[in-house]
Design a protein that fits this description.
Elements: E1 3-8, H1 13-23, H2 34-49, E2 52-60, E3 63-75, E4 78-83, E5 95-96, H3 103-116, E6 122-129, E7 131-132, E8 135-136, E9 146-155, H4 160-164, H5 169-183, E10 188-192, H6 196-217, H7 226-234, E11 238-239, E12 243-252, E13 255-265, E14 268-276, H8 286-300, E15 305-310, H9 314-317, E16 322-332, H10 338-351, H11 354-360
Parallel strand pairs: 4-6, 14-15
Antiparallel strand pairs: 1-2, 2-3, 3-4, 3-5, 6-16, 7-8, 9-15, 9-16, 10-12, 11-12, 12-13, 13-14
Helix pairs in contact: 2-7
Length: about 375
């Protein structure tokens, strides 16, 4: 086949039209939606990372067959080709039409892409999921990559009562006890932001609670960067034709005890940014209570998958029945990328050690 390759260096109306139509034809996660990536670029990509879009659209007979949401940024003297989305994207992948997902076809159009890629020194493709929903991620068949992490998800039952049967009695009993204790103090309810005023209130609380939690755990405070705060506070409403931001809170007598910033897309709920109030409220397991309320809401609203996304946290294993491997590709292209390669290798090595990881995560 004869493929045509077009490269877009900005988010314009022509790219938006192609992408928005094409995303509905592919198996994707919410992180591959045009609306999500374009907003990420406008807030974080351009202002914080200074990354230049290098979005590649492959067509066959004028019809899109693949789209690679790449960007190029400079780091340690190297031009690094990577997926757009940064720390905010848990799953990085191209958009590939199902009819072109075989090894031979993927290999063919990737060869065409290689002929048109702008000069770069290193390829860093992080957080690549083994699956695109239920199908294999086709590019992992042609890219040399290695496993680096895992993600967890729970298939949702037809009712909250049925779903709870997979949870240990100890957790169920403790949640009932904590809710009973809170109910003695007032009315406890799950509140979902539906207006800008409600969104502003909840996202302000979310940022405050999350930053406090970062300080307590010694983790890197990604919300210390203004561009990142703007991203979470400004992205609201619809994402593509089948998704939206979901901001919720557990509230007691108008007191925001726990918050969660996430997204929904198709039949999948993305559990992304949970946090909770500190001080006297820690003893009530606020984070878990909010999580349970959100799962119950997701079941009632007809969602099929509750996606805890990337990370091997122990609590996820108690709730989930699905596990997926996450891959990375690191390829040195030119001598100018050697310093960046050493930095990447050392960072990965240090993160494998709990002690060095603790100090590394404090660095912005």
């Amino acid at each position: 086949m004869s493929y045509k390759v077009n490269i877009y260096n900005e988010f314009g109306p022509n790219l938006r039209s192609i992408w928005r139509i094409f995303e509905n034809e592919c198996d994707i996660y919410v992180f591959q939606c045009y609306d999500w990536i374009a907003y990420w670029y406008q807030t974080i990509g351009i202002n914080n990372l200074h990354i230049k879009p290098c979005i590649i659209v492959v067509t066959d007979n004028s019809l899109p067959v693949a789209l690679f949401p790449f960007g190029i940024r400079k780091c340690l003297g190297a031009r690094v080709l990577e997926f757009l989305g940064g720390d905010q994207s848990d799953y990085n992948a191209p958009l590939v039409h199902p009819n072109y997902s075989s090894f031979n076809l993927c290999n063919d159009f990737w060869k065409s892409v290689l002929k048109h890629l702008p000069n770069h020194d290193f390829q860093l493709f992080n957080r690549m999921p083994a699956l695109l929903n239920q199908g294999d991620n086709p590019v992992l068949k042609i890219w040399s990559s290695f496993p680096v992490n895992e993600s967890y998800a729970a298939s949702l039952a037809q009712s909250w009562d049925l779903f709870q049967q997979r949870i240990s009695p100890k957790i169920r009993n403790d949640s009932r006890r904590q809710l009973r204790r809170l109910s003695e103090l007032g009315t406890v309810e799950l509140h979902i932001a539906t207006t800008d005023k409600e969104y502003d209130r909840l996202v302000t609380a979310m940022i405050e609670q999350k930053r406090r939690r970062y300080q307590e755990t010694g983790a890197r405070d990604i919300l210390s960067v203004e561009a990142t705060r703007i991203f979470y506070s400004g992205l609201r409403g619809a994402i593509g034709d089948d998704g939206s931001v979901h901001l919720s809170a557990l509230i007691l007598n108008d007191k925001i005890l726990a918050t969660h910033w996430g997204m929904v897309y198709g039949d999948r709920f993305y559990f992304l940014m949970p946090t909770y109030a500190g001080g006297e409220w820690k003893k009530f397991s606020m984070g878990r209570l909010l999580q349970e309320k959100i799962i119950e809401w997701a079941i009632e609203d007809g969602f099929k998958i509750f996606d805890f996304t990337i990370g091997r946290e122990q609590y996820k294993k108690k709730w989930c029945d699905q596990k997926m491997t996450i891959y990375s590709r690191e390829k040195l292209i030119s001598i100018f990328g050697i310093l960046f390669f050493i930095f990447t290798w050392l960072s990965r090595l240090l993160k494998m050690n709990p002690i060095s990881r603790k100090y590394l995560m404090k660095l912005n």
